[in-house]
Write a structure and sequence with these properties.
Elements lengths: L8 H12 L15 H11 L2 H11 L6 E2 L1 H10 L12 H11 L7 E2 H28 L9 H11 L7 H11 L9 H13 L13
Antiparallel strand pairs: 1-2
């Protein structure tokens, strides 16, 4: 885990988010070209739908119908099997999960927001080292972050060579700028890439009738 943010930064992030809400583009519709690893990840996540409501009820200890900050922290702690038992997410990690999953902007996670939050968290925790290594590999300029073109090349690589459109690259760049100040660092970029990796459009299996 990275170093925690100073106190008050989660509130600052929420304030930035509210100011940017009107101008901020919604999460782009993922392209139809989704690499096999990404599609498989979402497929396996879908199989856990039946257990999701039980998980939500377990952590919604005050029965408000939404998970508050401490409850989200407990949930993420328990769902991370890549660190020693009981290792809490940093303030930075908690803030980022809220940033990408809290669609209502109220600083909590409602049931319909938890699935994506857990999907993004699972990708981030399990693939964090891989994505950090990829960032180093594609950081041709050696700046510790990525240019727009470098990021696009990395995303295509993670997408098993399938194309990634410019809106998706823009979205990752915007999400990585966690404070809205134009400064993008490695930890934030890895989180944003994990959120993008998790965001795969669910496709309905079409069935054709034959005569």
């Amino acid at each position: 885990h990275s170093m925690p943010l100073p106190p008050g930064h989660i509130a600052a992030i929420h304030a930035v988010r509210r100011r940017r809400e009107a101008a901020k583009a919604s999460r782009p519709k993922p392209s139809g070209a989704v690499g096999g690893d990404r599609a498989e990840h979402v497929s396996s996540s879908d199989k856990r739908q039946g257990a999701l409501r039980k998980v939500f009820k377990k952590y919604d200890t005050n029965n408000t119908g939404k998970l508050e900050e401490d409850q989200i922290r407990n949930l993420l702690t328990d769902m991370d099997d890549t660190t020693p038992v009981g290792t809490e997410p940093t303030e930075e990690e908690l803030a980022f999960i809220l940033k990408v999953a809290d669609a209502s902007g109220d600083g909590c996670l409602h049931f319909y927001e938890v699935e994506y939050a857990l999907r993004a968290w699972a990708v981030y925790t399990k693939r964090r080292q891989q994505m950090e290594d990829k960032l180093i590999e594609f950081d041709k300029s050696g700046t510790g972050t990525l240019s727009w073109e470098e990021l696009r090349t990395l995303l295509v690589d993670l997408n098993n060579g399938s194309p990634v459109d410019s809106m998706e690259v823009d979205w990752v760049m915007a999400e990585a700028d966690i404070f809205g100040d134009g400064q993008i660092h490695k930890t934030e970029l890895v989180m944003a890439i994990a959120a993008w990796y998790s965001h795969v459009e669910k496709k309905q299996n079409s069935k054709m009738c034959t005569i």
